[in-house]
Design a protein that fits this description.
This protein has 122 residues and is mainly alpha-helical. The chain is built from four helices and four strands, in the order E-E-H-H-H-E-E-H.
């Protein structure tokens, strides 16, 4: 039996998937964490990045710590006060990670879409 044979023909269906990288004990990277990293690059602040996402500051800090605990070198570095004030940066390794994950996600999505299209319409 094919799935398309049991679906109402007047409805439009799509199958979705999500790419995440996880270790045996925790999630490392996925769409939400990627958005947080992008927002940190944009704002220079964990607090502002979290605010843009409607996320609590504590949750954002937990995600930052989780990401950094999975890597040899830190992906996110916080800087406390001083002359120019504090701030947060995504390291060069972090920026490379973002590019690599986005490329992997694009390839995953393309392959997934092709497979699901065949699955639904064969």
């Amino acid at each position: 039996m094919l799935i398309k044979d049991i679906l109402k023909p007047e409805k439009t269906f799509r199958v979705t998937g999500m790419l995440r990288i996880e270790s045996e004990d925790d999630r490392f990277l996925g769409p939400g964490r990627l958005e947080l990293l992008d927002n940190i690059i944009e704002t220079g602040s964990i607090s502002q990045a979290a605010k843009q996402m409607g996320m609590s500051y504590k949750k954002a800090w937990d995600l930052v710590n989780s990401i950094n605990q999975h890597t040899i070198k830190p992906i996110i570095i916080t800087q406390t006060g001083g002359e120019k004030g504090g701030g947060t940066i995504v390291t060069e390794e972090g920026k490379q990670l973002i590019v690599a994950f986005k490329k992997l996600h694009e390839e995953f999505q393309q392959s997934f879409d092709e497979k699901m299209n065949m699955f639904l319409h064969s």
